[in-house]
């Protein structure tokens, strides 16, 4: 290094230390490759390994925690000092990476999560607050079927990431909602990979438009929480490519996320984070991903395998992992050139980050404007399941009796790392009051007093992580006295009954009463209140404030309407009332099937898998309940349903459902006409167009779904598969819109294991345009003359054992 360089580096280091914020002008003079060359082995190891997870706990407690959870940091060393400092950049984030100002390397702050930025809302010794917006959960966004809307949410979310000084948001999450019981379904979009992929791509575009990054997660096949750290998912190559990887492929290719987070689980015998097949052959070679891959927090077990696989960063990491990595290079177990590649990928992203660019942060995002975004989005993603004339509220409705615990303790989002620290949640009651409706203090007092008592005795172990990280686990529903319902029916104009559910990271739900099924108090509540109001000629409406699917078939026709509000973010009560009052006409449709019974689903026989007896191991079939976040129980789940996930199963095998994929009602009606295909013979692409007319009395939007049925000659196919979707603008009564969709060969292709390629088979295809997967409004056919090989891809992730697969 020459003298003038040395001096300028020194000045920059001093400036950096003085400002508390890194300026990156040093490295702007250096290429990333040069930076890598200038790094010591120790620095490389420190960079690829995160700095441990930091909980703002008293030192006496923290010291006792494992290294990756903040323990064991020796702050007398230069590394320890640096880590201690950078952990303070943005309190409450999930992870940080090392910085070396003298080399022009800035730290990256990685923060959760899908429903908004998760940081600490307050800082010791400060009166300022750092709240973030709790946006509607992913399931709500998918139910809007509106990628533009989702992109606008991403823009607002990414703005908070930027204004608060984070670099990468650990979102979106797009695992497939394979089974209704997965505890994290609220963070995921859909049972369908096209919906999941398009939603994720829109979200990534929105967030990244702010110049901050995303980490699409959890790659891949992380469809359950039970033993998530060790479960081995046995899945066919075809189901893997068509169902579980397809959404990620769409997101990678359409939106170029800066990073990918590998998942905890194994797939066909190999940890995702250690799978060269997954992270290099598929992600990079087949799809062209250019960013870096990080582990999920504590995922995998062999750091050398992870580096070799192309898992560039280990999170949260610890000083022990750094040591292991250095020794691996020194002993020749890991080629330093591999490590250099990992480092280079991390630095290639670093140069894009706000911290590297020296972007000034305001700490003052426009939370008011974002509250408006979340309010509107949530209303657009709610799904009207039943409506027997109760909604929208008639003009004479002024007095509303709200029943159900969750009316008073509304749930804005799920638990765990996806739980945002928002300033407030608008309850249903507040939403009603804000809109000028009169509510009843006597009901409010009764419910609040009951919940306060019930919370004291509630079983806190139900979800350990929710207890640790915050998040609302609702108390059991209060048993309502019939006389209360009758008294209220005499005074109020209408009844609302909210049924609440919550779940999240660290645990799956159960097919039991009080979880997937409504419990006795809830069912009695619906019946008692509806009967009392009907006796007075008044109506009752059920609101589902849920993060995942519940059973509805046994009770949904008792009340006069059922609105699935999901967990609609912090403005929840306002959003629900916007729909109830008719200010917003519901246009959401289900992005997942509501089965009649849990057992009707195709994964119910094998979810969440079984313990695997390993030689010499203790009996591991013992208690698997409760907290399964960090345990490594040998466990296996075999995806025998293969490609028949969600509607692909229900529609193909004619299994009756409560509400089918794509279902949702409106306050108006739509007529579909003039289905046109650009050609009857497929020539690389066919354009489908259809007219949609609002034939009702109020303005509304319609989600239009395009399904295709394939010949399925050699490659067995489900009855139909979604190939495109769109949503009209708000159509006034009598107005029409023409929607058109381009269908190319890739949208029709299936994965052929024999040739390891995507193939669109020759033969006749039927295009079905519908208002749901069952409510098909128009059909047309076209033919493909010869088999088309869309893409030849890598042979990868082949199951190591045979297993029975479902067939038509
Ligand atoms: C979760 C991730 C999350 C990470 C960091 C993990 O336990 O699975 O979704 O991003 O923690 O908080």
Automatic annotation (TrEMBL):
GO terms for molecular function: hydrolase activity. Transmembrane segments: none annotated. Residues 1-24 form the signal peptide. Residues 702-773 form the Fibronectin type III-like domain. InterPro entries: Cellulose_deg_GH3, Fn3-like, GH, Glyco_hydro_3_C, Glyco_hydro_3_C_sf, Glyco_hydro_3_N, Glyco_hydro_3_N_sf, Ig-like_fold. Keywords: Hydrolase, Signal. Belongs to the glycosyl hydrolase 3 family. This is Glycoside hydrolase.
């Amino acid at each position: 290094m020459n003298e003038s360089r040395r001096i300028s580096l020194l000045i920059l280091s001093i400036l950096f230390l003085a400002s508390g914020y890194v300026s990156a002008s040093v490295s702007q003079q250096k290429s990333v490759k040069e930076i890598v060359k200038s790094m010591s082995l120790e620095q490389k190891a420190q960079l690829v390994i995160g700095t441990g997870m930091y909980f703002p706990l008293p030192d006496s407690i923290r010291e006792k925690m494992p290294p990756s959870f903040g323990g064991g940091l020796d702050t007398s060393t230069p590394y320890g000092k640096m880590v201690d400092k950078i952990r303070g950049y943005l309190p409450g984030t999930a992870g940080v990476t090392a910085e070396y100002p003298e080399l022009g390397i800035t730290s990256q702050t990685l923060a959760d999560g899908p429903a908004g930025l998760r940081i600490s809302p307050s800082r010791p010794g400060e009166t300022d607050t750092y709240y973030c917006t709790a946006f509607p959960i992913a399931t709500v966004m998918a139910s809007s079927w509106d990628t533009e809307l989702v992109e606008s949410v991403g823009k607002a979310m990414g703005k908070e990431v930027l204004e608060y000084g984070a670099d990468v948001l650990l979102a979106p999450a797009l695992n497939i909602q394979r089974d209704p019981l997965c505890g994290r379904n609220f963070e995921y979009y859909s049972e369908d990979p096209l919906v999941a992929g398009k939603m994720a791509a829109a979200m990534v575009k929105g967030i990244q438009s702010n110049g901050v990054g995303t980490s699409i997660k959890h790659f891949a096949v992380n469809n359950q929480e039970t033993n998530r750290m060790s479960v081995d998912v046995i899945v066919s190559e075809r189901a893997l490519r068509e169902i579980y990887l397809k959404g990620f492929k769409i997101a990678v290719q359409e939106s170029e996320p800066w990073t990918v987070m590998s998942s905890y689980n194994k797939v066909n015998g190999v940890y995702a984070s250690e799978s060269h097949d997954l992270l290099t052959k598929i992600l990079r070679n087949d799809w062209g991903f250019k960013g870096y891959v990080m582990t999920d927090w504590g995922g995998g077990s062999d750091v050398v395998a992870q580096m070799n696989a192309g898992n560039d960063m280990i999170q949260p990491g610890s000083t022990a992992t750094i040591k292991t990595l250095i020794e691996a290079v020194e002993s020749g177990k890991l080629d330093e050139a591999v490590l250099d590649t990992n480092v280079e990928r991390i630095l290639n992203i670093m140069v894009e980050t706000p911290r590297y660019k020296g972007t000034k942060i305001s700490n003052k995002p426009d939370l008011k404007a974002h509250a408006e975004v979340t309010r509107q989005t949530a209303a657009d993603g709610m799904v009207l399941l039943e409506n027997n004339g109760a909604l929208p509220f008639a003009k004479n409705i002024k007095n509303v009796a709200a029943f159900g615990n969750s009316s008073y303790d509304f749930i804005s989002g799920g638990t765990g790392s996806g739980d945002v620290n928002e300033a407030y949640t608008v309850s249903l009651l507040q939403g009603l009051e804000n809109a000028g409706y009169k509510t009843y203090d006597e009901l409010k007092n009764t419910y609040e007093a009951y919940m306060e008592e019930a919370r004291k005795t509630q079983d806190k172990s139900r979800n350990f992580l929710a207890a640790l990280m915050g998040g609302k686990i609702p108390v059991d529903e209060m048993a309502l006295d019939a006389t209360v319902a009758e008294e209220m029916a005499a005074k109020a104009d209408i009844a609302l009954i909210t049924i609440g559910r919550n779940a999240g990271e660290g645990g799956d739900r159960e097919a039991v009463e009080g979880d997937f099924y409504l419990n006795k108090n809830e069912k009695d509540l619906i019946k008692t209140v509806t009967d009392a109001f009907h006796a007075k000629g008044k109506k009752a409406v059920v609101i589902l404030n849920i993060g995942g699917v519940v059973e509805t078939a046994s009770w949904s026709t008792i009340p006069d309407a059922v609105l699935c509000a999901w967990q609609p973010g912090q403005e929840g009560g306002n959003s629900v009332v916007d729909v109830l009052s008719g200010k917003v006409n519901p246009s959401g449709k289900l992005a997942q099937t509501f089965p009649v019974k849990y057992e009707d689903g195709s994964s119910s026989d094998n979810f969440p898998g079984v313990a695997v007896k390993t030689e010499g191991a203790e009996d591991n079939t013992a208690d698997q309940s409760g907290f399964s976040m960090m345990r490594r129980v040998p466990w296996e789940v075999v995806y025998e349903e293969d490609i028949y996930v969600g509607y692909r199963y229900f529609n193909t095998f004619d299994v009756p459902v409560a509400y089918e994929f794509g279902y949702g009602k409106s306050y108006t009606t739509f007529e579909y006409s003039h289905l046109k295909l650009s050609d009857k013979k497929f020539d690389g692409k066919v354009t489908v167009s259809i007219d949609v007319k609002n034939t009702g009395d109020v303005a509304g939007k319609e989600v239009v779904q395009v399904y295709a049925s394939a010949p399925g000659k050699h490659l067995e196919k489900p009855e139909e598969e979604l190939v495109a979707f769109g949503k009209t603008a708000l159509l006034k009564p009598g107005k029409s819109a023409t929607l058109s969709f381009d269908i190319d060969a890739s949208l029709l292709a299936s994965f052929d294991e024999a040739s390891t390629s995507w193939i669109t088979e020759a033969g006749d295809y039927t295009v079905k345009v519908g208002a749901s997967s069952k409510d098909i409004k128009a059909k047309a056919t076209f033919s493909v003359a010869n088999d088309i090989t869309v893409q030849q891809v890598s042979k990868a992730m082949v199951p190591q054992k045979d297993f029975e697969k479902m067939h038509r």
